[in-house]
Amino acid sequence: MAEVAPPPPPTAISDEEPKVQVDDDVEMAPAAEGVDQETTEITNNGEDKADSEEEQQGDKLPKDACETLYLQNLNEKVRIPVIQETLYSLFKPYRPLHPVIAHKNVRMRGQAFISFPDVESANEAKKDVSEFPLYGKAIQISFARGRSDSIVKKVEGDEKFDEHKAKRLEEKKLKRRNNPLRQKAQAKLKAEETGAPQQKKQRLQMPDEYLPPNNVLFIQNLPEGTTSDDLREVFEVHAGLVEIRTIPAKKDIAFVEFADENAATVAKDALHNFKIDGETKMKVTYARK
């Protein structure tokens, strides 16, 4: 009977973990490196997307955008022709249209309007030139509230221009009509006319006795048939008589002119209530100027 070889003795199991020899030149973080690259790609993609959205947002035109810009805070000491030429040169890269509108009146001082061939050019000019220091003052720029006449005429033709101009003038009239200060003044005037007619009448009918002194006398209540010769006989006794003027259509009044105020005053005081016909008292006052 053949002998059977006994099985080999079991290998002893060590509690120590197997040691792996690693070359010092080998990097051992491939997995971590892969994670970092993936994370970086995600981050970069997010930043690129945000930048793209910002660019799109920046390119989007404001709701109030139009082809004309309204400039404020311009140096008022600079002459209008100079400021117009300077502004045109400053905005030249954005293809501005002639002319640059600027006025020297008090209401428009330090302001100007400049138009461009399209809204995009105006928007770009607004973003780039806002706060530019011109003659020591930072330009403030906003879109004009309406399209300029030159833009409408250039883009839409004469027919549309006539409609635009008529509409603008009508809006201007309406704005003036609705001006609070104007309405207040009109209300005050209306109240004076309707609320106190008697007071107004009295103010207009100031008694002749209180008129300021001057060299012309106003004669009233003359008896019928009184002539300039009759008046001359009465007034020439006083020095300084120059002229007597009767009114053909109104025979009960006349004007008597003296050389100066003092001579007229002496005659007035002496002849007021004088009875030129022995019965009727004539009224002598200073004439209205």
UniProtKB/TrEMBL annotation:
Annotated ranges, domain RRM: 67-146, 215-289
InterPro entries linked to this entry: Nucleotide-bd_a/b_plait_sf (IPR012677), RBD_domain_sf (IPR035979), RRM_dom (IPR000504)
Keyword RNA-binding assigned: yes
GO molecular function: RNA binding
A Pfam short name: RRM_1
Keyword Phosphoprotein in record: no
Compositional bias of kind Pro residues: 1-11
Protein keywords: RNA-binding
Disordered: region residues: 1-20, 30-62, 166-203
Domain of life: Eukaryota
Protein name: RNA binding protein
Organism field: Kwoniella pini CBS 10737
